[in-house]
Specification:
mainly beta, 42% strand
């Protein structure tokens, strides 16, 4: 039975500084426990990189969970992002548990936490947690929903590993990087308001594929980006210089 027994104090974050996504759509994902999903809303949609799809589970009494096989790689997960689906805020999960395994059978609980119930659709909540162990399999499980609906649904979930590139000298700050508007339809502004010079902005999809690179000069304050040809989904905008970089999520809908 998939019940979260222990809740830890985690840190919600608006952006994830220097983080690398772990899940990609090509990885093997399977439902955990008793799962009942309609056609087109199966468990594979949870890491497909698109917020326009979702994983919906009608058999939520034992939780709504999934396992991801990283395909032989081992990653140290240190944060999670969870994006709400298109309809019915009552179906949004209200808590989560992250577990790791190196054999795909025996899992260790890494973190648990509470997700704020937000009426806005396609809203992403992010949380950091303490973990120093690399795992080749990860499990995420949701056990209660925000309302009294007969199901739990989630558009997208992503785990992130830490990136050690950032240094204190000439360090870029996540708080000074903005993407406006976000979500958007592919037209937006990238702005960095800090005192540190940035050299470029890279836009990647959830698999890590580079879809756009923009060069900055010392006089650049913001750049307008046009990406209307991209599919809807989750992307990452990374601004960088020779010594540091920082990343924020970009949602194209």
């Amino acid at each position: 039975m998939k019940k979260t027994l222990l809740f830890l104090a985690l840190i919600p974050t608006l952006g994830l500084s220097a983080q690398t996504p772990i899940f990609t759509p090509s990885m093997t994902v399977t439902g955990y426990g008793d799962v009942n999903s309609p056609v087109g809303e199966e468990v594979s949609k949870i890491i497909d990189g698109s917020t326009s799809t979702k994983f919906l589970d009608f058999n939520h009494a034992d939780g709504t969970g999934f396992d991801v096989d990283l395909g032989g790689a081992s990653k140290v997960a240190e944060s999670i992002s969870i994006t709400t689906a298109n309809d019915s805020p009552n179906r949004d999960p209200q808590n989560y548990e992250v577990l790791g395994s190196n054999n795909g059978t025996t899992y260790t609980s890494i973190a648990t936490g509470t997700i704020p119930c937000i009426a806005t659709r396609f809203s992403t909540s992010s949380f950091t947690f303490s973990n120093t162990t690399a795992y080749s399999h990860y499990r995420v499980n949701f056990t209660t929903q925000c309302g009294a609906d007969n199901s739990i649904q989630v558009a997208e979930v992503q785990l992130f590993e830490s990136d050690t590139l950032g240094v204190h000298e000439n360090e870029l700050s996540i708080d000074e990087l903005s993407i406006v508007p976000n979500p958007n339809s592919g037209s937006f502004l990238i702005n960095y308001s800090g005192n540190v010079t940035i050299e470029k902005a890279s836009i990647t999809d959830v698999s890590g594929k580079l879809v756009k690179e923009i060069k900055f000069t010392s006089n650049d304050l913001e750049r307008k980006v046009q990406l209307e040809s991209l599919n809807t989904g989750l992307y990452f905008v990374t601004v960088s210089n020779a010594k540091s970089r920082t990343t924020k999520k970009l949602i194209i809908k």
